[in-house]
Amino acid sequence: MTTQLYGFWRSNAAFRVRVALALKNIPCEEIEVDILSGRQFDPEYAALNAEHVVPTFIHNGHRLFQSMAIMEYLDEIHPEPRLLPDNPEERAYARSLALVSVADAHPLVVPRVRNHLAHAFNADNAAIVAWCRHWAAEGLATYERLLGHRPASPFALGDAPGIADICIAGQIITAELYDLDITDYPQVTTLTARCFELPEFRDAHPSRRPGYVR
């Protein structure tokens, strides 16, 4: 069985998939695609992923992209431990939490958005960093409100981490990359500290990946 993950240390989406693979104890070869230097547009990689993004997950010859789709696929081919609950209402709630980062906050800080700000609006580095901090904070503030309505116990949906915790942890990583003050988000920081006590989260952190630059 051939399992490969094309990713990059800076990619939040690749972080999510790395954690999911680790939680399920699925061995995987990781191949670097430097999205900061534009290697996602190389013809060889474009043949694998026409969207020109990471991650790309290859399993038994099948190519998959988009972190949510990959994580749900992993749940289907390797059901234990579960990333999504069996209960339909809880499963929808888990997806809702995950999508705050995946669909709302993270897409606004990816390289193609940062590059567009620079090229179309002449935004300098300081303006781009301020933009990214704003959207990182918006995501954390949303999670803080949601966890206020339903506190983690000890994880977002109970005793074990799942897809929601993975995505909330990813939002904290975005905040770290832009030196955002996270003291206003105590419930988020408590939950994610609990996540990063686990080797599956800790080893997937950008600072643990080859090529990491602070």
UniProtKB/TrEMBL annotation:
Leader sequence residues: none
SUPFAM superfamilies, alphabetized: GST C-terminal domain-like, Thioredoxin-like
InterPro entries: Glutathione-S-Trfase_C-like, Glutathione-S-Trfase_C_sf, Glutathione_S-Trfase, Glutathione_S-Trfase_N, GST_Zeta, Thioredoxin-like_sf
Keyword Isomerase applies: yes
Domain of life: Bacteria
Coiled coil: none
GO terms, molecular function: glutathione transferase activity; maleylacetoacetate isomerase activity
GST N-terminal domain residues: 1-82
TM stretches of this protein: none
Keywords: Isomerase
Matches recorded under PANTHER family: MALEYLACETOACETATE ISOMERASE
Protein known as: Maleylacetoacetate isomerase
